[in-house]
Amino acid sequence: MVTFLPDRAGRLADVPSFTRAIGGAESNVACALAAAGHRAKWVGRVGRDGFGDHLVEAIGAYGVDVSAVRRDPHRPTGVYFRTATDRASDAHEVVYYRAGSAASAMSPQTVPYAGVADGRILHLSGITAALSAPCLALVRALTAPRAGRPLVSFDVNFRPGLWGDEAREGGRVLLELARGADLVFVGADEAEAAWGVGEPEGIRALLPEPAVLVVKRGGEGAVLFERRADAGPADSAGPADSAGPAALVDLVAHVPAPRVDVVAPVGAGDAFAAGFLSGTLRGLGAVARLRHGHLAAAAALTVPGDLAAPPRRARADRLAGLDDAAWGRLHLGPGWTGDDQEVRTP
Known about the structure:
33% of the residues lie in helices and 19% in strands. With 346 residues, it is α/β, with parallel strands linked by helices. The strands form 4 sheets. A 6-stranded mixed beta sheet has the order 7-8-9-10-11-12, with helices on both faces. It has a 4-stranded mixed beta sheet with strand order 2-1-5-6, with helices on one face. It starts with a strand and ends in a 14-residue tail after the last strand.
């Protein structure tokens, strides 16, 4: 969608002007991954209109492959307006104008599987599933078991307003979709709202199927559950060749979030996913992947819009490699990703 960001704080009724930007969970992740040096492709549908032109050009300018984007001559590009306040606050307002949009008409028929399965990771969002019945059918098709599919990453992104009166059913649907993914991102707050469970261990009990589950806890950090094969104790009784198959157990890692001087509390979830996926593509360990997620989120939190230039890879690797004490002292503010800025570690 095209996003209109308020030029000042206040109610939508009182904001006189807005700045045009781009928005959308999957496209945000694609842009952040491309900016971090990865090859990324965004697959979607926009209208054959000026806003559609802007989206394709702006997303492509990040280095994202937009060759699979289709233009709908009959439906418009979606837009939305929001206030500058935290989405979790009662003062936050967001107004979507995307009923009947080109994106809402996506379906298994309009988005062929071959066009989205040619990468190492396929990233999906629960927001797309909420747009329409055909969109839900598409996400169901992409999370269904299939031989040779890429690693399927799914960000739950539960937005009760998108589901309307069907919010309870929306929670059930998102749980079903998450169970079909290989890697799942979910906020503890949205899990509580969607499923009535907010503790990481309880969420993992609801979602035992994904090999990797990341539970985001805001300023408290994030918890990763990663299923690994465990052959049991090395000194277990009996000959080695009589042992049964290795049990599957969870590696659990928790990484606190660094302290951040927040400019705008939007875009952090998509940025976190991009940072974590970047670490996944690079084969990094559990703690490093979580730290790269936090650093990418901090980049987004310290700019006004949804998207931010990430720190250079060498710098991000240096920060992600700090010892626990130094990581705990990190304090990131506006401009911290620039090469001439120093990160405060008091």
